[in-house]
């Protein structure tokens, strides 16, 4: 018996995603993770400028299924890089909105990346991904502290796949647009727990409208529900 397909996508796209994840992992194996410059420094940006650092495939698949189950139509991604995770987000949103007749009701993924060279690679990858995600992604090139200040609509899901010190600023920008029941996912929350202290303090504060659980994925993956 054939194994179940993890997502509703064509064999071409599944194969392409596999290739992208494999390229990302090959690159990551060349990085010395124990002697990285500070995440807020130019040296860190220089080192990461040609790196995918894509969200792991199993995490991308989980995110896809969460989007399908909450029927997400508007998604924000903080940290797009070469656009690998964005393809999963766009596939889910496209599937959730495929019965909508008008193009404007099709839902969207607002993706943001500050490095123009990475954004341009993302555009090429989405072109190669093809019609299954066509017309869904709204790419905003620039610093998220500027790009996420406008026109978000009502947001169902926020992916925080960003350098950890930027996770809280991104959440605070999107928070006024979150619908009750919206889901936020943040990556690497166990491995980089010390860098997420401000985010955790904010969402775990007494009276907070957020509820947070850490999922046992590689490096930790936090799922935060907005009530
Ligand atoms: C972990 S990578 C994102 C990987 C991507 N989600 C994927 O799975 O393919 C984080 C990205 O955030 C970008 N980034 C860092 N600071 C940013 C900022 N202030 N505004 C927008 N993007 C930023 C980095 O350039 C990097 O490409």
UniProtKB/TrEMBL annotation:
Keyword Methyltransferase annotated: yes
Entry-linked Pfam families: Methyltransf_24
Keyword terms, alphabetized: Methyltransferase, S-adenosyl-L-methionine, Transferase
Example GO molecular function: O-methyltransferase activity
GO terms under biological process: methylation
Recorded superkingdom: Eukaryota
Gene3D superfamilies tied to this protein: Vaccinia Virus protein VP39
Family in the record: Belongs to the class I-like SAM-binding methyltransferase superfamily. Cation-dependent O-methyltransferase family.
PANTHER family the record matches: PUTATIVE (AFU_ORTHOLOGUE AFUA_6G01830)-RELATED (PTHR43167)
Protein name from the UniProt record: O-methyltransferase MdmC
Species this protein is from: Penicillium subrubescens
